[in-house]
Write a structure and sequence with these properties.
Shape: globular
Oligomer: single chain
Distance between the termini: 12 Å
Number of strands: 11
CATH class: Alpha Beta
Structural class: alpha/beta
Radius of gyration: 17 Å
Mean pLDDT: 94
Low-confidence stretches: none
CATH architecture: 3-Layer(aba) Sandwich
CATH topology: Rossmann fold
CATH superfamily: Class I glutamine amidotransferase (GATase) domain
Largest sheet: 9 strands, mixed
Strand content: 15-25%
Number of helices: 6
Order of helices and strands: EHEHEHHEHEEEEEEEH
Helix content: 10-25%
Strand order of the largest sheet: 2-1-3-4-11-10-9-6-7
């Protein structure tokens, strides 16, 4: 049975939705408080998948994901790098994405070295809206997905890279609904991200960070027009989690 660990505590608030996403995808899921990991009460090597959830870790003081990343960097390096060396899967959603880049796990595993950033939206306000996304099949999590329609809710989601990101590692881009092409135009690109980037993966395709919330679209009635459209019973976000389970089962 595929086992997924969903991180909780420290101001995070999307653990129940993320747990449900993995459960629906076929995993055995456990929500684990960060202190239980740091204190060794729960072992990361018991799991196949690690999920960094959305929320406001430590109130986003010092920048989104910064304090959480520092806590993990000083007390969890060995376990996390061993987990990665074992070719297991990691996803970071919204605040989780911010944490992964600050840890130095994206766009490549370079522990403690940050080479990209997620900064304040160009609108200088919290953005809560649905966006159209183009996906890449290189990333294990987005394999076989062409288009996604998912909600975003963040104030620090502008992706900034200090060097070019290899095209295959650009897992998700904000696109114009009418042209289907990546765009810098607001509100289709809700934060002004470089190259319209909404999510990236590492060179292996196993570590994935994204600003949109796939765990917030698991059922048709979560779609903003579900009362006016005939939609599939399952939401588009579920496929991301199903891809992860399929990968582990076939590994």
């Amino acid at each position: 049975m595929v086992k997924a660990l969903v991180l909780a505590g420290d101001g995070l608030n999307c653990e129940e939705e993320t747990k449900e996403a993995f459960r629906l995808a076929g995993a055995e899921v456990e929500i684990v408080h960060i202190l239980d990991l740091l204190e060794g009460k729960k072992k990361l090597n018991e799991f196949h998948i690690l999920a960094f959830t959305g929320g406001f870790s430590s109130g986003d003081h010092l920048g989104s994901g910064t304090i959480l990343a520092n806590r993990l960097r000083t007390g969890f390096e060995k376990s996390l790098l061993e987990f990665i060396d074992q070719k297991k899967l990691i996803i970071g959603i919204c605040n989780g994405f911010q944490t992964l880049v600050r840890l130095g796990l994206l766009p490549k595993v370079c522990w403690g070295v940050q080479s990209v950033s997620l900064s304040f939206n160009d609108s200088n306000r919290f953005e809560d809206r649905w966006v159209h996304l183009k996906a890449s099949s290189f990333c294990i999590w987005t394999k076989g997905i062409d288009h996604l329609y998912l909600p975003i809710r963040h104030k620090e989601g502008k992706f900034i890279s200090f060097a070019s990101i290899p095209s295959q590692q650009i897992a998700l881009q904000y696109i114009d609904e009418n042209t289907g092409q990546p765009t810098q135009t607001y509100p289709a690109n809700p934060n002004g991200s470089d190259d319209a980037i909404a999510g990236i993966c590492d060179p292996s395709g196993r570590i994935f960070g994204l600003m949109p919330h796939p765990e917030a679209f698991l059922f048709r009635y979560q779609h903003p027009t579900w009362m006016r459209q005939l939609l599939p019973e399952k939401g588009e976000g579920l496929k991301i989690f199903q891809n992860a389970i399929e990968y582990v089962n076939n590994s």
